[in-house]
Amino acid sequence: MGSCRPTHGNRRADPAIRPRLCARPGCDEVASATMTYDYGNRSTWIDQLDPDSSPAGYDLCVNHANSLGVPSGWSRTDRREPPSPFERVAV
Ligand SMILES: [Zn+2]
Fold this sequence. Notes:
By secondary structure, the chain is mainly beta. It has a domain at 33-78. Helices cover 5% and strands 21% of the residues. The protein has a 4-stranded mixed beta sheet with strand order 3-1-2-4. A hairpin with a 4-residue loop joins strand 1 and strand 2 (43-48). The longest helix is centred in the C-terminal third of the chain and has 5 residues, at 62-66. It is globular and about 45 Å long. It starts with 32 loop residues before the first strand and ends in a 13-residue tail after the last strand. Residues 22, 24, 27, 29, 60-61, 63-64 line the site of zinc ion.
């Protein structure tokens, strides 16, 4: 609330902005989730794609995010929001 982060302002479209791709080798799907982990706590988290491209996160496509496995003893928490409100719409 109190932060004064600049919004769009007058910046023109940045040519460096391009779709981020899945970090998995051999996968060129567009990333839709960001995976982060904490080695000490043996925890991994899957979030909506982080727009700031955190260096600690791995971008994953939806398939790899959904199928992400973690080593035994690790926890995996999917914090993504439901994909859309249109799911389960009663007609
Ligand atoms: Zn992928």
